[in-house]
């Protein structure tokens, strides 16, 4: 029983398993928090307060769902490949020359895809950093200029997007001046901000998981390559033994002296 347990452990790719968990959990958290945060900003802030639509943000929400599905499937595929290239399973699957070559090509292809996806997640991490920075700035404005003031003190106050470099041609579409709207703006930002922070942390987790996958794929590629060399060496040894046995069978019988008869 203990032997089977240790054999099972020997076939388990713990590095790929850990990377898959990080990628799947990070992707799910990122997609969920980003979707909800963008919903709060799109509907609660831009549509209701600033009175203009951002259609590309709505497309971005759908894109997050697609990213979650694709990354989850890719992580599962890499995990399955990790199982196939670990322990005695590797010796059984990648034993022939064609299987070994197919395994090397598959590992190289997965490394290329993982590298491209890692660059994409690094870009998302940069975007998440910008979102967190904007949230920290707006939250500081709300704390010092809105939450600590009474309605009478904010009669002439307006929150203007121009201080963030956003300009609109339509008049009064880039500012919020009413006290109730200012409070609603700050409340939405306070609600969506932590979600952006969690989404940024999730991108970091996914990037770490993708780096783990790159490391394991490189290691599996090397192991499969070594399996090819071992297979060629074993075939050469077996061929030499066959030639040796065939030579021994063809040798003439030993000379017998007449005095032995």
Automatic annotation (TrEMBL):
Pfam families: Myelin_PLP. Keywords: Membrane, Transmembrane, Transmembrane helix. Residues 241-261 are annotated as: Disordered. GO terms for biological process: neuron projection development. GO terms for cellular component: plasma membrane. The chain crosses the membrane at residues 12-42, 62-84, 105-130, 192-219. This is Proteolipid protein DM beta. It comes from Biomphalaria pfeifferi.
């Amino acid at each position: 029983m203990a032997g089977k347990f240790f054999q099972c452990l020997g076939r388990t790719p713990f590095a790929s398993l850990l990377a898959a968990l990080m990628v799947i959990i990070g992707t799910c958290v990122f997609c969920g928090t980003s979707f909800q945060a963008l919903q709060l900003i799109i509907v609660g802030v831009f549509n209701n307060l600033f009175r203009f639509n951002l259609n590309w943000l709505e497309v971005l929400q759908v894109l997050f769902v697609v990213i979650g599905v694709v990354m989850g499937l890719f992580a599962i595929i890499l995990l399955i490949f990790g199982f196939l290239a670990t322990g005695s399973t590797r010796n059984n699957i990648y034993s022939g020359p064609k299987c070994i070559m197919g395994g090397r090509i598959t590992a190289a292809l997965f490394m290329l895809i993982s590298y491209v996806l890692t660059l994409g997640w690094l870009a998302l991490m940069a975007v998440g950093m910008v979102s967190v920075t904007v949230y920290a700035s707006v939250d500081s404005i709300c704390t010092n200029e809105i939450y600590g003031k009474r309605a009478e003190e904010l009669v002439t106050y307006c929150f203007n997007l121009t201080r963030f470099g956003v300009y609109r041609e339509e008049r009064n579409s880039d500012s919020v001046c009413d006290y109730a709207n200012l409070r609603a703006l700050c409340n939405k930002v306070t609600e969506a901000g932590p979600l952006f922070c969690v989404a940024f942390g999730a991108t970091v987790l996914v990037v770490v998981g993708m780096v783990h996958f790159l490391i394991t794929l490189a290691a599996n590629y090397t192991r499969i390559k070594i399996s090819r060399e071992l297979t060629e060496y074993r075939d050469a040894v077996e061929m030499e033994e066959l030639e040796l046995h065939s030579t021994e069978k063809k040798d003439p019988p030993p000379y017998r002296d007449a005095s032995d008869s």
